[in-house]
Amino acid sequence: MKRVVITGLGAITPLGNHVDEIWKSVINGESGIDYLTRFDATNFSAKTAAEVKDFDLSNYIKVNERHRMDRFTQYAIASAMMAVKDADVTIGKDVLPERIGVCFGTAIGGIESFEETYQNLINGGYQNVYPFSTTMVICNMASSQVAIALGAKGYNNCIVLSCASSSNAIGDGYRAIQRGDAEMMVVGGAEASITPLGIGAFCAMGAISTNPNPQSACRPFDVNRDGLVMGEGAGALLLETLDSAIRRNAEIYGEIIGYATNSDAYHITSPAPEGKGSIEVMRMALKDAKIEKEEIDYINAHGTSTKNNDKSETAAIKKLFGEAAYQIPISSTKSMTGHMMGATAAVEAIFSLLTIRDGIIPPTIHLENPDPECDLDYVPNLARKKNVRTVLSNALGFGGHNSALIFRAV
C-alpha cells in the first residue's frame, strides 16, 4: 500500500480567505462568528452565524462562469485551486491529468440556488426557471466543477454524509492513492447553507443556538452551550504518494496513516448511547494506522456545542483511552469557525496538520464553565505550545455517520 502525504492546503472560512490568515486567527483564539447578515433574521430564533467575509472570486472563476454555480461550488473551486498552488503542482508536468483525481464532500449542496429556483417557479412557472438550476443544486457539482477547473481527469467522487462528508472525502482520496487508482487527489468539502431554509430547518429542529450574543453563542463542552452555530466555506488538501512528493522535493505537511468510517445504525440525529459508534470508529482508525492509542498527541474533536454531541464524544474518548484520556489535549475549533457542515472536517484536517507543523494546539474558546460530564482537557481559551507528532481528527454526522482520520509528521 502506497504511503500518502499532504503537500497542499487551501481554505475559505469565516476566519479568513487564505490558510495563513485563518491559522493566525485560530492560534490567537479569534472568532469568525457574528450577527447573521445573509438575510433578514428578525423572525428566526437564531441570530448568529459564521459567514465568509470579503471573499474575492476574481482570482479563481471567470465572471461569465459564476452565474452557473452555487456558492458552495465557487468555494470548492477556489479552495482546490489554492491547494494545488500551495503544493506547486502543474498538471500535465508533475502529474498526468488521468492520474490526478478529485473527491469533495458536501452535506447540503446548492440550497441557496434551490430556494431561488423554487421562488422563480412559483412566481413565473417553469418558463421562469434558470436553465442551469439543476446543475447549480446537485451535490456532485463540487467535485465535477473542481475537476473541470483543474483539468483533473482521474478518479472522481462526491461524498454526501452530512457533517462527516469531507472527512470521508479525504479518506476516499487516501484509499484511491493507496490502491494505485491515482497518484494525486484533490480532496475536501464545501458548504454555503446560511439561507432562510438552511437556518430555518435547524431552528425548527432545535439544534441551533438561540443565544443572540456572537461572543458566547458557540461554546463547545461548556455547561451553558445551547446548540451549534451555522458556518460556511471550504477546505481542500492535495494528497499524493510519498514517492511523488520526494521526487518533486515538495513541502510535506504530514502523512495520513489511518482512516475509518462506520455507522451507529441508531437514530437520524442523536448519537448512539455512550458514543459506541465513535468508540469503534476511533479504534478502527488506530488499527488502520497500526499504532497504539498512547501515540495520539492531540485530538481535534467534532465538538459541535450541542448537548448530546459533546457529552457523547467525551464519553467515547474516555471509554477508548481510559485514564490516559485526561492527559490528551483536545479542542473544538468549531468554537471559532462555527459548524461548516460538509466543509468542517476538511478545515479541521488542515488545522490538525498545522498543529503538527507548528507545535501549537488550537484552543476551544468561550469555554468558561465546563460541563461536569465533559471533564477532559479541552485546551480552554488559549492556544498551547506542544510538540505534536500524531493527531486524531473526529467527524460525526446526522444519520449516525462516524469518521476518523489520523495524521502524523513525516
Automatic annotation (TrEMBL):
Got a GO cellular component term for this one?
cytosol
Q: Which reaction does it catalyse?
A: a fatty acyl-[ACP] + malonyl-[ACP] + H(+) = a 3-oxoacyl-[ACP] + holo-[ACP] + CO2; (9Z)-hexadecenoyl-[ACP] + malonyl-[ACP] + H(+) = 3-oxo-(11Z)-octadecenoyl-[ACP] + holo-[ACP] + CO2
Active-site positions, per UniProt? C163
Query: Pfam families attached here?
Result: ketoacyl-synt (PF00109), Ketoacyl-synt_C (PF02801)
Asked if the keyword Hydrolase belongs to this entry, the reply reads: no
Q: What class of enzyme is it?
A: transferase
User: Pathway, per UniProt?
Assistant: Lipid metabolism; fatty acid biosynthesis
Q: Name one GO molecular function term.
A: 3-oxoacyl-[acyl-carrier-protein] synthase activity
The UniProt record lists the Ketosynthase family 3 (KS3) domain at 1-409
Q: Which domain of life is it from?
A: Bacteria
Task: Tell whether RNA-binding is among the UniProt keywords.
Answer: no
InterPro entries, per database record: 3-oxoacyl-ACP_synth-2, Beta-ketoacyl_synthase, Ketoacyl_synth_C, Ketoacyl_synth_N, PKS_Beta-ketoAc_synthase_dom, Thiolase-like
Biological process according to GO: fatty acid elongation
Q: Which UniProt keywords apply?
A: Acyltransferase, Fatty acid biosynthesis, Fatty acid metabolism, Lipid biosynthesis, Lipid metabolism, Transferase
Q: What is its EC number?
A: 2.3.1.179
Matching PROSITE patterns: KS3_2
**Cited function:** Involved in the type II fatty acid elongation cycle. Catalyzes the elongation of a wide range of acyl-ACP by the addition of two carbons from malonyl-ACP to an acyl acceptor. Can efficiently catalyze the conversion of palmitoleoyl-ACP (cis-hexadec-9-enoyl-ACP) to cis-vaccenoyl-ACP (cis-octadec-11-enoyl-ACP), an essential step in the thermal regulation of fatty acid composition.
The UniProt family comment states: Belongs to the thiolase-like superfamily. Beta-ketoacyl-ACP synthases family.
What protein name does the entry list? Answer: 3-oxoacyl-[acyl-carrier-protein] synthase 2
Identify the species of origin. Answer: Heyndrickxia camelliae
> Which taxonomic lineage is given here?
Bacteria, Bacillati, Bacillota, Bacilli, Bacillales
